[in-house]
Specification:
Blueprint: H1 8-37, H2 42-76, H3 78-82, H4 84-95, H5 103-109, H6 114-138, H7 150-156
Helix pairs in contact: 1-2, 2-4, 4-6, 5-6
Length: 159
Amino acid sequence: MSLIPITEELIDELEDFKRLYKNVWFSIIGQVVLTRHVPFASSRGSGDVGKKMRLIVNELASIFYEHWRGFVKQFYGEEICGELLNILRDIIGDEIRLHKNRAVEQWFNGSITTQQFAECIAQELQCRLGKEIENVAEHPKTVQVKVFELSDLKDLFSA
């Protein structure tokens, strides 16, 4: 179980998204099938598929971002929170691979519930946040510190 909160509001918003974009998802599947069987349709279809997939990735990432950014900022810091939307896009992009039986496909097809879908994304995010924290720790920002001499300090406290 993930530590990242999965609220009723998140589930409701994902359900609304699924209702709105289910036809878009099935049109993506249809275009992919068409381009496999009709060679001349592949160039036109691939552009449409890419646009629709980017739309779904961006919209889903935005939903999760709005619900999780406060939690990530509080527990993982501002620097990680600044990368959260990109991390979510990567996760959802990985989970949207067509015909790979990934989480987005299973969710749209009804093989998993919205709760299970959210938990899948939350678990992957938690794993990636650990990696991001390691990357930040390996490459800390340099901080310049001024070293004071004893004579400098004496001037500060002179009467």
